[in-house]
Design goal:
3-stranded antiparallel sheet, alpha+beta, binds zinc ion, 2 domains
């Protein structure tokens, strides 16, 4: 994440702030170019974004502003929702406060996903006449359901119970995971979505199959065999060395999506560390250099959170056997970003 400063008073502000905590200036996030700037109300509903260069000169706050969205929408856009909120197709209605709170927390994680993908040159947008690779999100709160989180072509579904710490922690322990977060789910499911753009359309299927296995393998059978085996194992079994997580070993598609998610974790983690002066060495933009820094930094960050009495923030070991897969993700992302 980038580091932002209040343009009015110079205090540090963060990506999710809609007001400067120091001088109380109202702030709005402008998705393009990706900056948090002071906003001023000019009439009943439209705003001036102070310091924004170029058109447009009038903005709306996203219609979800009351639910914590701080993104701005150009008034000429013909849209009432921002570039992140307009990706949401399904959400809970306002009859359940718990559901709406969980939804707004998930939207905050989604804004991080949308901003990062944009900055990496992999933007996502709803389907349209110009976009045959559209994506929408169904953020659903179904307390009685079995897990619904997953991906179908063009649709990511998130089970909003994942926002609840107790629910997520119980699932994390049950599935023997080191790491389980809402942002992690969104990054993982996005990995499934971008498979076509990054691998199939880039003519990289053979290379992908050599690294991850054949993604045409029977999914249901793979899942059953994995979870059948899992119940026979001791709870502290670590994932096999060539997998970034236990779930990655279920099926080649899951291995790809897990590697894509961890690639986004390390890119965001490294960027944040650099922006906040926590990484004084830096990397040269190649994957081996990034991994070297990430191993050092994530170890340090995990020890800092343990020093504060909290569990490890990341807790994942990127072993050497995983590097070729992450290199492949990095190469595919870089190739698509260069095309733009
Ligand atoms: Zn301020
Ligand atoms: Zn919004």
């Amino acid at each position: 994440m980038r580091r932002f400063t209040c343009r009015t008073c110079g205090a540090a502000v963060t990506f999710s702030d809609s007001r400067c905590p120091s001088c109380e200036t109202h702030l709005g996030f402008v998705h393009e170019p990706g900056d948090l700037l002071p906003i001023e109300l000019v009439d009943d509903s439209s705003y001036l974004v102070v310091g924004h260069q170029g058109p447009p000169d009038r903005w709306w706050r996203c219609l979800n502003a009351a639910w914590g969205c701080n993104w701005m929408v150009p008034t000429g856009d013909g849209a009432v929702w921002c570039a992140s909120c307009r990706l949401t197709r399904g959400r809970p209605d306002e009859s359940s406060l718990d559901a709406v709170r969980a939804w707004s927390t998930a939207e905050a994680a989604k804004r991080r996903l949308v901003a990062q993908l944009h900055w990496l040159g992999l933007p996502i947008a709803p389907p349209s006449a110009e976009n045959d690779d559209g994506l929408v999100f169904d953020l659903v709160y179904l307390p009685e359901s079995v897990g619904v989180t997953g991906h179908r072509p063009g649709v990511i579904t998130l089970d909003l119970r994942e926002v609840d710490h107790n629910f997520r922690e119980a699932a994390r322990q049950h599935f023997r995971e080191e790491y389980r977060t809402v942002l992690g789910h969104l990054r993982h499911e996005t990995g499934h979505h971008v498979w076509r753009r990054l691998v199939v359309r880039q003519g990289a299927l053979d290379e992908a199959r050599a690294l991850f296995g054949d993604e045409r393998a029977d999914y249901a059978a793979a899942l059953e065999s994995h979870y059948g085996e899992m119940h026979d194992q001791t709870p502290d079994t670590r994932p096999a060395a060539e997998f970034v997580s236990d779930y990655a070993s279920v099926h080649p598609s899951e291995d790809w999506a897990e590697c894509f998610a961890h690639y986004l974790h390390l890119r965001d983690g490294l960027e944040t560390a650099a922006e906040f002066g926590l990484d004084t060495i830096g990397h040269d933009g190649t994957l081996p250099s990034m991994l070297e820094r990430w191993r050092e930094l994530s170890l340090g960050v995990d020890e800092v959170t343990r020093s504060l009495g909290q569990p490890a923030a990341y807790g994942v070991t990127i072993r050497p056997q995983i590097e070729p897969k992450l290199q492949f993700v990095h190469d595919r992302v870089s190739a698509v970003a260069r095309e733009r």
